[in-house]
Amino acid sequence: MADQLLLHVDGKDQPASDGGEFAVHNPATGEHLYTVANGTEEDVNGAVLAGRAAFDDGRWRAMPPRERARILNRAAVLLAERVDEYARLESLQIGRTLREMRAQLKRLPEWLEYFAAVAQTAEGSCPEFGPEHLNVVRRVPLGVVGLITPWNHPLLITMKKVSAALAAGNSLIIKPSELGPAVPGQLVALLEEAGVPPGVVNFVPGLGRSTGKALTEHPGLAKLDVTGGTETGRVIAAAAGRSLIPVTAELGGKAPVIVFDDVDIDTAVAGALFAAFIATGQTCVQGARILVSRNIYDRFQEVLVTRTRQLRLGDPMDLQTQVGPLVSQAQRDKTAAAVDRAREQGATVLAGGRIPEGAQYANGWFYEPTIVGDIRRDHDLWSEEVFGPVSVIAPFDGEDDAVMMANDSPFGLAASVWTQNVGRAVRVSRRLDIGIVWINDHHRIDPASPWGGFKDSGIGSENGLEAFRSYTRQQSLIINASDTPFDWFGTDEDLRYS
Ligand code: NAD
């Protein structure tokens, strides 16, 4: 890993215009990893101008789709070769276990391959326009788009946005999270190595409140695409509103895991653990509210608590570790405070609920995987996103109650329904005011499958054809195909406005 992560604008690495930088630390050990150039307003402006110049001269936008696709496929091959190196880097800077980072990164070439295929097969349309005209509707790229990403899946989320935006022919400015920008930075170099022309993908790391704000408010952007907290999403969407540009926002969540009484308890508990504690609970779709049919509640809770206590917390680089640290002190403080408040409000901590003791945890931001019971729907922990290894468990009585509890949230990102009854699974999922519903599974993602939340979880979606389309706009060509001469003011006959 280089000692300093620089900006990359118009094909060139550069420091911040004012020389500013900040440090990234290993959340498991506190060790200093590298410094990052903190992009200024001037840097953002330079990146947008570079992206605009690349867009205007058509070096990427006007390239035949098959050629663009070839380059994206080449990038997929390069990425597959670097998965181990990138997984290590991701684990070092965000603390997520190496076994999980490897599993995730191995799949990322699929995003480039999928959107390469979409670029080649995308078609316009030819709506009916009456006998004298032919209407051809083209899909054209937007221009320079701003991509703002979080730290919890640094490369996955960057990849989702980059592959759709590039396949559609746009120029990009990437503003990664200040907590984990190294691998997104490497991706930019990899894309140019694969053949994306300089100036098309620009990289401006920096702090959200300065670099992110400057990007969001830049008048030269044609779209903003953000993944982050709901409050960040509101600020960015408001700026997009002022610029009258579209916004895609993937925001917070508080996903319910709904367990009916016909399940195999061990299988459903394994599913709930997977939902709750992958990435140390730091995922937007974390199974934060485990809702269990009352007639199996006691048994389910007992097995869940036992298995939660058995999770191996520790060094993320050790392949035996199942749960790593939180990403930062702020994130651990927030997690601990949320559990303490739940205790004060009368909930019961059934497993975890502590900062672990021991030398191996002393310098990192660790918190034990935690299950909280006796939760009421007026407790803060019921509705607030913690973004840590904390889930609540509560009983329900029948389908109506399960649906009411699951929908009782400001968020509507994801849910899982666990049952062997297909009719019930379909019935319940149709009543959920939630964007992604897994049946007997959780967390699964595919480049072809839409990913987006309802309510306070966001606007629009990533993945799939809609994501590609959201990086284009329609241009309508209306061709006069009539041989009859036309003179609007030269006739006294009844006029026909078509
Ligand atoms: P965050 O909102 O703190 O930051 C996200 C990005 O926005 C970062 O790059 C940050 O620098 C930038 N930013 C912050 N303030 C900004 C501002 N005022 N203007 C412009 N940019 C700004 O989020 P985070 O802590 O990095 O990530 C965790 C959050 O992301 C959680 O709420 C989680 O649910 C959400 N998330 C959602 C999804 C999804 O698909 N819906 C996926 C992952 C994470």
UniProtKB/TrEMBL annotation:
GO terms for molecular function: salicylaldehyde dehydrogenase (NAD+) activity. It comes from the Bacteria. Keywords: Aromatic hydrocarbons catabolism, Oxidoreductase. Pathway: Aromatic compound metabolism; naphthalene degradation. Its EC number is 1.2.1.65. Coiled coil: none annotated. Residues 1-20 are annotated as: Disordered. CDD domains: ALDH_DhaS. The active site is at residue 250. InterPro entries: Ald_DH/histidinol_DH, Ald_DH_C, Ald_DH_CS_GLU, Ald_DH_N, Aldehyde_DH_dom. It catalyses: salicylaldehyde + NAD(+) + H2O = salicylate + NADH + 2 H(+). Pfam families: Aldedh (PF00171). Residues 18-476 form the Aldehyde dehydrogenase domain. Belongs to the aldehyde dehydrogenase family. This is Salicylaldehyde dehydrogenase.
